Amino acid sequence: MLVDMSKHLTMGQLLKYALPSIATMIFLSLYVVVDGLFVSNFAGSRALAAVNIVYPVLMVFGSAGFMIGTGGSAIVAKTRGEGDDARANRYFSMLVYGAFLLGIVLMACGYAMVDPLCRLMGAQGEMLELCRQYGYVGLVSLPFFVLQYVFQSFFVTAGKPQIGLYVIVAAGVTNMVLDALFIGVFGWGVAGAAAATAAGEVLGGTIPLLYFFRKNASYLRLGRTSFEGRVFGKACANGSSEMVGNIAMSVVSMLFNFQLLRLVGEDGVAAYSVIMYVAMVFGAVFIGYSMGTSPLMSYQFGAHNRVEQQSIFRKSVGFSFAGGVVMCLVAQVAARPLSEVFVGYDAELLDMTVTAFQIYALMYLPMGFCVYASSLFTAVNNGLVSALISLLRTFVFEAGAVLLLPVAFGANGIWFATPVAELAALVVACVFVLAFGSHYGFLKPRKKKDARPAC
């Protein structure tokens, strides 16, 4: 069913609209989780640590898909809100073709950079070889990985978020089945994990191409277009916060791995791998909600419907904080059983993972609003503020905490780095929202006090 983006949505309807995007992001995160589960149980903790070292490198290159998808969908949705569907489709086609070409260029760059980046993070010997295996195989599908993320944003703008979910479920199931075959049956280890993920990504990028090339029941369709540098540049600038956020998260993961190898050893990296797998799934809820509701905000922003903008904002703030409380409580209770699934074969590693897990889980309390605030400014076409929130949240606060807290508190200080960084980012996000909210329409204008007559 095609969703009417112009109508008022209750909280239940808003959640229903965002649910396919939430489920989509969870399935995307399960790509890596399933890889880690099979690698850990069939190839051991060293192989698990190697995957966790090289995967952030792949994410740095793949983050171009987030940038073009989120930034471009905001422009396309706003253009639709202004009533120009023909121009919106022209922009959509140009952005998709451009993203695929950019993915090919980034794939070539990736082959030259995987080895030196893994060495820089401290990988050597057998671990370096495992990193190479996963990285070189994983890069084959990079152009489709980029398209996969581009289309997930555009499916929402096209009024068909449920189709995006079906595509990711198909890709995710393919990945899981091939993981079991390549790792569990054939014994291909990290190379098999990368090949299974690559197959899922190719599927996730190809199916939407076929869907949008054909006549379909959505608001968007791929067709002939011409390159418009101004629009493409604006999409990249507007979505730069998502790219900055993903690159920064990858860099922070590299810093975590570097510090853990130095202070704790390979077991520390393995413990962090388990925490990040769960964090990816939990974080996917916030990212998916933001991705699913941002085109709605962009559409209403283009239509100058301030009442509906404010309604979407209020409901989203409530979801962000309520979701954070629930996730934090669930993580505290589930820390041990979830850790046992990955590293139950090693009692000492299991205890370390559980302790780290429970500390790290405190970050879910402020995380939801930080993620939403960044996507909110992307939705109203202010990529600069969105990028600043992402940049401060990760590159400044989290990277700084990873480097400084262990100096004061030893190895356990590493696990507090993300909760401390998210709390600082919450303060910054609130300042920006209060400062610009009335200007962009998602907060009511402040009432001016009546001037009192002079005595």
Automatic annotation (TrEMBL):
| Record's keyword terms, sorted | Cell membrane, Membrane, Transmembrane, Transmembrane helix, Transport
Main location per UniProt?
Answer: membrane
> A single GO CC term, please?
plasma membrane
Q: What superkingdom does the record give?
A: Bacteria
Q: Where in the cell is it found?
A: Cell membrane
Specify the protein's topology with respect to the membrane: Multi-pass membrane protein
One Gene Ontology molecular-function label: antiporter activity
**Which parts of the chain span the membrane according to its record?**
14-33, 53-79, 91-114, 134-151, 163-186, 192-213, 244-264, 270-291, 312-335, 355-379, 391-417, 423-443
Q: Does the keyword RNA-binding apply?
A: no
Q: What is this protein called?
A: MATE family efflux transporter
What organism does this protein naturally occur in? Xiamenia xianingshaonis
Q: What is the lineage of its organism?
A: Bacteria, Bacillati, Actinomycetota, Coriobacteriia, Eggerthellales
